[in-house]
Write a structure and sequence with these properties.
ABC_transpr_LolD-like; 32% helix; four-stranded antiparallel sheet; 10 strands; Rossmann fold; globular; 228 residues; Putative ABC transport system ATP-binding protein; 7 helices
């Protein structure tokens, strides 16, 4: 299979006053299309920084970041925003839903960057909600949903533009074990049945068991470890 994510000699540095802090060090990474990868490691190891670079939310200080064959580190801000909207879905720990909007309207948000009509956006959002089992809650606002339901809405939002890559930052970190397992089972289904490539940051070894592979990070470097 071909690589959907490719990082070559990637470094990321931040300036803190007069001090330069290097978070990632000349990192190389290849992730194949259709994989489900869990990123694990201690706090400060660079997991979220790496995820943000892959998702195009940040840019490397050095090196190349390619997603689906596209060098995203070279794109302009507007071109990168359009690329993210079409090709990458994001799922965060705290859902990041707009509280004044219904579930359906939240799911539609990424489609506002496309040329789809309002009717098509509506149809795509309902389809995404149906995939995550929440079509009947389409008109409910986030405050009227449980944590697990809110995260399902967030996953539907990530899916609505039919991206090939999902990046998930601690997607079950705010959920109880039972609900977390339901969300992880849904991600596993999206990987196996819908062909979505998934990269998930997690501190939870039980969550990582749902992935096909684990990448352990420590001090800005990577060491792969396969999951049976």
């Amino acid at each position: 299979m071909s690589s959907i994510v490719s990082l070559k000699r990637v470094a990321k540095r931040y300036q803190r006053g007069k001090q330069t802090v290097e978070v990632l060090h000349s990192l190389d990474l290849e992730i194949e299309a259709g994989d489900f990868v869990a990123l694990m490691g201690p706090s400060g190891s660079g997991k979220t920084t790496l995820l943000n670079l892959i998702g195009g939310l940040d840019r490397p200080s050095e090196g190349e970041v390619s997603v689906g064959g596209q060098r995203i580190d070279r794109l302009s801000g507007s071109a990168l925003a359009r690329f993210r909207a079409r090709h990458i879905g994001f799922v965060f720990q705290f859902y990041n839903l707009m509280p004044m909007l219904s579930a359906q309207a939240n799911v539609e948000l990424p489609l506002l960057l496309t040329s789809l009509s309002a009717g098509k956006r509506h149809q795509h959002a309902l389809t995404a909600l149906q995939i995550v089992g929440l079509a009947e809650r389409a008109k409910h606002k986030p405050a009227e949903l449980s944590g697990g339901q809110a995260q399902r809405v967030a996953i539907a939002r990530a899916l609505v533009a039919d991206p090939t890559l999902l990046v998930c930052d601690e997607p079950t970190g705010d959920l109880d074990r039972k609900t977390a397992d339901e969300i992880l089972g849904l991600l596993q289904l999206l990987n196996r049945e819908h062909g979505k490539t998934i990269i998930m940051v997690t501190h939870d070894p039980k969550a990582a068991e749902y992935a096909k592979h684990i990448l352990h990070m420590d001090k800005g470097t990577l060491a792969p470890q396969a999951v049976a």
